[in-house]
TrEMBL record:
Lipolytic acyl hydrolase (LAH). GO terms for biological process: defense response; lipid catabolic process. Belongs to the patatin family. Residues 1-19 form the signal peptide. Pfam families: Patatin. This is Patatin. The lineage of its organism: Eukaryota, Viridiplantae, Streptophyta, Embryophyta, Tracheophyta. It is an enzyme of class 3 (hydrolase). The active site is at 77 (nucleophile), 228 (proton acceptor). A motif (DGA/G) lies at residues 228-230. Keywords: Hydrolase, Lipid degradation, Lipid metabolism, Plant defense, Signal. A motif (GXGXXG) lies at residues 37-42. It comes from Tagetes erecta. Its EC number is 3.1.1.-.
Length: 411
């Protein structure tokens, strides 16, 4: 068993022992939503969330929103932007955006976030090559502008449910994970939601890093020099689980009446943004001839970026799958991921109408596809017999989420 999985398992057992011995009240299910990074491919999880929210509305009425049902929403990069939209309050202290609004957001704003260069092949290649050598591919001005409109000058402590958004500080060379819990406890961690959303989306080679400052209670400034959280946790599921365990252990979480906490007391929905089909476009013989520029840019792709993103996401899924399997709680962890993207759909920044509709179709096909789990030996997703389609699994999750919310309202 990998060392970090052992640590997480021990933490779960410790938390279970701690809470059970505290004589606390009736067990609560902890609910978690996690959304991967992936640029314009965020349309895929947005499509899945639209379906889930529709099912919740069928059960609880048209006012139901995703943030009403999840104790924690974690998101990295484009997933962090979605997390912000799901959790930011409007003037009535209700979610400002529906899940369907988020999907429509991509269709309207993605072409301006990722403006497409001329399709004349030669000029396009030259522009891309020189653009990525001398600076980021996009200036990020539109992304920053729209993030500030979404954030509405709200800070992390204002979110309607707890959020977890990873970033990475290039000055300190360490991850910085922004959370609602920390923002409520430490003034200097209560950053603007817009600054956090911009930071977690600042993918190297695509957007410039984002710099901002916060102040502590005594006026001391804290500096942040941040890039895309995907370099540390493109799939933030494990970050979310570990954070919950820590908060419960120190007795600070809002659901401190939990009798015990392990995989059987958690309901985790993890949504991927898709990964390219294993076309084996990179290999050792070819990469042996690469220099610095080739690792950053090779035939329209960024090998080093692809490697970090896929490795980060896959390792998390393997670890979490192993954890829930060891606790006989596999059905409490639903990971929906497309691992067969081809052509433009595998890109993070091709925001043409045609490609965005193709990504929406990927999300719809996933709904009709069978529930799959990662094979711990091959890393490939394999269909699971007897668990139906992803739409059926999400419908089951909707029922469980609705039941848990009603239980809490009437306890």
């Amino acid at each position: 068993m990998p060392p970090n999985l052992i640590i997480l398992s021990l933490l779960m057992m410790t938390v279970s022992t701690y809470t059970a011995s505290s004589g606390l009240s009736k067990t609560t299910i902890v609910t978690v939503l996690s959304i991967d990074g992936g640029g314009v491919r965020g349309i895929i999880p947005a499509t899945l969330l639209s379906f889930l929210e529709f099912k919740l509305q069928e059960l609880d009425g048209p006012a139901a929103r995703i943030s009403d049902y999840f104790d924690v929403i974690a998101g990295t990069s484009t997933g962090g932007l979605m997390t912000t939209m799901l959790a930011v309050p409007g003037d009535d202290n209700r979610p400002l955006y529906t899940a369907n609004d988020i999907k429509e957001f991509y269709f309207y704003h993605a072409p301006k976030i990722f403006p497409q260069i001329s399709r004349i092949e030669f000029l396009n290649k030259v522009a891309n090559f020189f653009g990525e050598v001398v600076g980021p591919k996009y200036d990020g001005n539109y992304l920053r502008s729209i993030a500030r409109k979404i954030g509405k000058n709200r800070t992390l402590k204002h979110t309607l449910t707890d959020v977890i958004i990873p970033t990475f500080d290039i000055k300190r060379l360490q991850p910085v994970i922004f959370t609602t819990d920390d923002a409520k406890e430490f003034v200097w961690k209560d950053a603007l939601l817009s600054d956090v959303a911009i930071s977690t989306s600042a993918a190297p080679t695509y957007f410039p890093p984002h710099y901002f400052e916060t102040k502590d209670v005594d006026g001391t400034k804290r500096r942040f020099d941040l890039i895309d959280g995907g370099v540390a946790a493109n799939n933030p599921t494990q970050v979310a689980i570990t954070h919950i365990m820590k908060e419960i252990l120190i007795g600070k979480r809002k659901f401190s009446d939990i009798e015990s906490i392990d995989g059987r007391r958690m309901l985790v929905l993890s949504l991927g943004t898709g990964i390219p089909k294993r076309s084996e476009k990179y290999n050792a013989q070819r990469a042996a001839r690469w220099g610095l520029l080739n690792w950053v840019f090779d035939n329209g792709s960024s090998p080093i970026f692809d490697i970090y993103n896929d490795a980060s996401s896959d390792m998390v899924d393997i670890h979490v799958t192993t954890l829930f399997r060891s606790l006989n709680a596999e059905r409490n962890y639903l990971r929906i991921q497309e691992d067969n993207l081809v052509g433009d759909t595998s890109s993070v920044d091709i925001a043409t109408e045609e490609n965005m509709k193709a990504l929406e179709d990927v999300g719809r096909r996933l709904l009709n596809g069978k529930v799959s789990r990662v094979d711990l030996e091959t890393g490939l997703f394999q269909e699971v017999e007897g668990e139906g389609t992803n739409s059926e699994a999400l419908t089951r999750f909707a029922r469980l989420l609705s039941q848990e919310r009603k239980r809490r309202q009437h306890k």
